[in-house]
Automatic annotation (TrEMBL):
Gene Ontology terms, MF aspect: 1,5-anhydro-D-fructose reductase (1,5-anhydro-D-mannitol-forming) activity
Enzyme Commission number, as recorded: 1.1.1.292
Annotated Gfo/Idh/MocA-like oxidoreductase N-terminal domain residues: 12-110
Keyword vocabulary terms for this entry: Oxidoreductase, Plasmid
Organism encoding this protein: Nitratireductor thuwali
Top-level taxonomy: Bacteria, Pseudomonadati, Pseudomonadota, Alphaproteobacteria, Hyphomicrobiales
Pfam families: GFO_IDH_MocA, GFO_IDH_MocA_C3
Protein name listed in UniProt: 1,5-anhydro-D-fructose reductase
Keyword Oxidoreductase: yes
Domain GFO/IDH/MocA-like oxidoreductase, chain residue ranges per copy: 123-243
Top-level division of the source organism's lineage: Bacteria
Length: 331
């Protein structure tokens, strides 16, 4: 993921002109040196984060470590005066997430999370379309996520790889698009036959959202043969019609054209282009929003105080799957 971040900085002129990479830290110094050569930069290289931060007096820390190292990394950055932008998930437990929020408050610094799915065209476009009321009131929405990536490395050994490492993206996008509050969940987790993951690579979940809205999730990271988009495939149902999104470029929306029949007549409606194109460039948009929030003295859209709500969906689903029971997310 470090490559993705560095690529976003290099390829986005508005960021390249504002950000200088002054340090690269990795437990394997050779990896950091290779990244510096690859991206033609000359930062201070080191294996100890605190040492490099003190030497460079950096303003920001971009945290791209595996989840198990996140807490220590973020706390070090905040303690040395950095604003911190972290990869997801925000933490490996709700308790750790609360600790990071409290640490950011004490340090008067921002700790935000790279929920880059919020900053893609389709997600912003759907949020605006649902807010327009064309479908009436949202009553339910549903998501399928089926892929078969062979990552190697930590993901294939970690517990809850789908729910914790990937579904956080999907759940956060769901919460953002629907603009509803998650209240409770019933979930099931499994590791299907043939899985190359050590733990649960598949999951199903039913979420209860505010205003009576139901969200269902079906997902697998070991589903060969018929892949969805990385953004998943979605169905949104309102009181006047429905919207389908394939997670890529295809949007299909139909609403009731006339009533009084066994099956009402439908008409196709267009889904307008995204209203704010500058917010649809993935990692680059997350970083730009982060910088703008720091400069303006406000919380960014993916600030930890907001992202903890998406993380709560993940851990509630994990708890529900383990207990085989409905779990209230507010708890």
């Amino acid at each position: 993921m470090a490559k993705g971040w560095l690529r976003a900085l290099r390829q986005t002129s508005a960021l390249a002109d504002r950000i200088e990479v002054v340090g690269l830290v990795d437990i394997d110094e050779n990896v950091a040196r290779e990244r510096a050569r690859e991206f033609e930069i000359a930062p201070l290289i080191g294996t100890d984060l605190a040492t490099v931060l003190k030497a460079t007096k950096a303003d920001f820390l971009f945290d791209v470590v595996p989840p198990s190292a996140r807490k220590a990394t973020v706390l070090t950055g905040l303690s040395l005066g950095c604003h911190v932008l972290s990869e997801k998930p925000m933490a490996t437990s709700i308790e750790d997430a609360r600790e990071l929020i409290a640490a950011a408050e004490r340090a008067a610094r921002i700790h935000a999370i790279v929920q880059n799915r919020r900053f893609i065209s389709g997600v912003r476009r759907i949020r605006a379309f649902l807010e327009s009321g064309v479908l009436g009131e949202l009553t339910g929405f549903h998501c399928d996520f089926f892929l078969a990536p062979h990552f190697g490395g930590f993901r294939e050994q970690m517990e809850h790889p789908l729910l914790l490492d990937m579904a956080i993206h999907t759940f956060d996008a769901a919460r953002f698009m629907a603009d509803k509050v998650p209240l409770a969940v019933y979930a099931q987790e499994a590791n299907p036959k043939g899985s190359w993951y050590a733990h649960g690579a598949a999951a199903n979940a039913i979420f209860e959202f505010s205003d009576g809205v139901i969200f269902t999730y079906r997902g697998s990271w070991c589903a060969e043969g018929a892949p969805t988009s990385w953004e998943a495939a979605w169905r949104f149902i309102g009181t006047r019609g429905s919207l389908l999104w394939d997670g890529a470029e295809r949007f299909e929306a139909r609403v009731v054209a006339s009533e009084g029949k066994f099956l009402n007549d439908l008409k196709i409606v267009s889904v307008p282009e995204e209203p704010a194109a500058e917010l649809t460039h993935g990692h680059a948009s997350v970083i730009a929003e982060f910088l703008a929030a720091v400069n303006e003295g406000r919380r960014p859209e993916t600030d930890g105080t907001d992202n903890v709500r998406s993380l709560a969906m993940v851990f509630a689903a994990i708890e529900s799957a383990a207990a085989r029971a409905r779990v209230e997310i507010s708890q």
